[in-house]
Every structure is written in C-alpha cells, then in structure tokens.
Amino acid sequence: MFSIRVLNIILAGSVSIGLLAPLTAAASETVQHAFQGAPNDGAYPKAGLIDVHGTLYGTTDYGGANSRGTVFKITTAGVARVLHSFGSGSDGAYPVAGLINVADTLYGTTSNGGTGSCTGGCGTVFKITTSGIETVLYSFKGGRDGAYPVAGLINVAGTLYGTTSNGGIGSCTGGCGTVFKITTAGIETVLYSFGGGSDGAYPEAGLINVAGTLYGTTSSGGGTVSCTGGCGTVFKITTAGIETVLHSFGHDSDGVFPYAGLINVKGSLYGTTAIGGASGPGTVFKITTAGVETVLYSFKVGSDGANPYAGLIDVAGTLYGTTVHGGTGSCTAGCGTVFKITTKGMETVLHSFKDGRDGANPYAGLIDVAGTLYGNTSVGGASGNGTVFKVAP
Length: 393
Hints:
By secondary structure, this protein is mainly beta. 2% of the residues lie in helices and 39% in strands. It is built from 1 helix and 31 strands. The chain has one helix at residues 4-12; strands at 23-24, 28-34, 42-43, 50-52, 55-60, 62-63, 70-75, 80-85, 100-102, 105-110, 124-129, 134-139, 154-156, 159-164, 178-183, 188-193, 208-210, 213-218, 233-238, 243-248, 263-265, 268-273, 283-288, 293-298, 313-315, 318-323, 337-342, 347-352, 367-369, 372-377, 387-392. A 5-stranded mixed sheet has the order 1-28-27-26-25, with no helix packed on it.
C-alpha cells in the first residue's frame, strides 16, 4: 500500500525553500482547536471537514481512547468533542478520509481495521450518527473486494461509491485497487479492478459525479514510463463499471502523482498533483471531460507553496487549496500554505503556516462556511498533534 505515511517521508525531502516571492494576500488565520492526542483527543487529521447544520465533522488518523483514530465534531466557535474512538480494530482503525452526510447520517471509511485478513485489517466502510453511534457497514476482505480505502465516499442517488487503494485482481502486489459501490445497508460490489498498467493503479482519492459518470484519479499507473510504475491518471468510469483513462501524467511537465480528487467547475475538472510541474513540487491542473489537460500553475519550490496533497474547492469561481510544504514558515521544507488560484492560473498565498504553533503541513482540503475557510493541519498546534483552523480571506 502506498500510504500517506510513506508519502510524507518522500515529500519531506522533495523541496527546499527558495527566495521566490509569490503574490500574497492578507488573511487572518486562527487555530480553532489544537488536538491533544491519545487518550482523550484525536491526532494527525489528514482529511477535510464537512458542515452539517452549522457544526463541522471530521476524522483524525490517530489518537482517541485507543490510539486508532477518531470521529469528532467542532463548532465554528472552536468547541470540539470526540464522537467515536475507534477501538479493538473490528470497528475500523486509522480513518484517513473524511465523511459525507446522507440524510443526517455520516458515512466514511477507515484505512485499516475490520474483520478482513490483512495485517491490521483491510479497512471498513462505516456509518455514524451525529450523536456518535458507529456501525460498520462493510469490512474489506483484502482480495477481489479491495483493501485499504484511504479515500472518502460519494452519494449517487442513495448508493455510495468509493475506491480502495489496494486489493482487486490487478497484477500489483496486494492488488492495484478498486472502484466499488455499497448500499447504505452494506451490500458491496466491485465495479472495477485496476490492472496496474495503462489503466492506472492505487487510487487514493475519492470520486466525483458529473452527469451520471464518475471521475477520479489514480496515484500511479498510466501509459507513460517516466515514473517507475507510472505517474498516475485521470479516469472516468460508468456506474456499470466501464473505465476509460482520460489522461496519463508524466508527459513533460504536466505533473506527477495526483493523490487528490477532482472538482467540477462549469464542466471542466480541476485537480492537483503532489509532485511534478515545471519546477518539481506539484501543480494545479484542469482537464476537460474529453481528456484535454492543461497545467494552470506549477509551484516554484519556495514561498508560493509546495506539494499540494489535497484537492480544491470552488468559491464563487475562485479555487482554494492547501500545500503540505513550502511557504515562508520555519519548518524543514516549509510548513505549508493556504492558497487561492483563479481558473486562469493566477495563484495567491493567503496564509503561510509559520512555525508549527499555528499548525503545519495541511494534507486536508478546505471547506467554505459563510465566507470563512476551515481546514485541518496534520501536525503542529500546541501539542504537535494537528489543528483545526480557519482563514478569513
């Protein structure tokens, strides 16, 4: 499994802070909550938040009563509470992905745990009420049905769709990953098993629905040979399981390794690659549903940010995102940034995380709540276990 934990090591050595001066805009960043870690609080949130009737909900990869991660809620005023601590393992462990809301019940995935035969468990799909009652809908078995879901789910007409980063029947060790669907009653069906070649491998991002067709990315595979195992793809798949690769990364400077999913803005899809581009530390790109890809922005190994792991959000036609590294902060390789970018490719840094106390290394994307952006940092804060923050652009 090519995990976020492995990527963190790779990215940490992939950039150095330069002297470039990007456009900057005054933005007020406030830490809403600093995670304390086990046993009472979560730690190391990797996924973004969702807004349910004005209260924000999210997950932490670690921490909680059993050090296997949590589901938490937090008010916009910063009052946080753990709803569920993942326990013995059968209820899931280490949720890397965020949640979705379906009729006021929250659904998500854990990257490990469950009753499958993988070491540490093959992962689960779970549901949880807003009061904290958690139920496992499905435990992945680690074979044809998939393993290690690190991406979240989407709801299409009452059926949930997602990806597993491993498993399936592909040629990769442990499987190259799958696209699956699951009913809210827990009946899981594999729609597609990645083969590990030109069709892509190791999907670590969720899907989006555009007019009944699903679109996503794979972090590896594809039809180029410029990366060992392939540089990743953008693909589409019908709800009947017919998969088509729209773009294989690794041609010249178009980006490498898309770990994030896509967003749809007026019929064009936008996303990020964690590495690659003209200078090496990642890109923002757009791609048509016909597969015509254009790099909007290449991060420049410096204060403009580096290594965007998360996807983007659209706020009134402007895109907002985060980078794990870069910026003007004092962390090794930079503490990361919050940025905005126009659909024409003009990038502006809204906030550079400074020294860790204000948060550092945001893997998670952002949400917009009444004009204020909320997100998580994976580390930093008062105890070093990550934060929930807000930025008022």
